Here is the input.
Amino acid sequence: MISLVSGLHSFTGASDINVVDRQHNIELLLRGIYPSIYPGSGVCRPWTPVDVRDCAAGHVGLLESTSVKNGERYIAWKAEHWPLLKISNLIGELLPELGYEAPTPTDGDGPEDAVQRTRLEDIWLSATLRNDRIRAATGVTFRPFAESLRDCVESLITVAGVETGTFKPKL
Here is the structure.
């Protein structure tokens, strides 16, 4: 039997052709660390996730499609926004057997950072996300984010050996 880590991709913006390693941020949450906001981190930008399995199905579907023309661009995502705090809370709801306690959000050095995070999240949450083109071209359906997150967390624990709640703050 082959064990694979189920993962999540999340695009950081139209100008970024790479995906951000969201598994690491989920690992930090599991260990009891809320990822800090720092310039360029994307932490205050809500995630726009896609399950890696759905992303792969989209790629295969585009390769097999007879209607896709050379040079056309498609975005493979669930077309939902997920702020990190909601993701953190959802882990505990999905897997109560872990005894997961969501870590306290850290926003940097002061209260102005929390205001900045909220302001930036609100801007990103106002964007309309669509995936109708890739669904029409490939027939791919995107699984619920809760399923993807649960599978990712379970894989990080069972396959990657991540231990939950291992972070001990320095006093």
Remarks:
- Confidence is low (pLDDT under 50) at residues 1-6, 10-20.
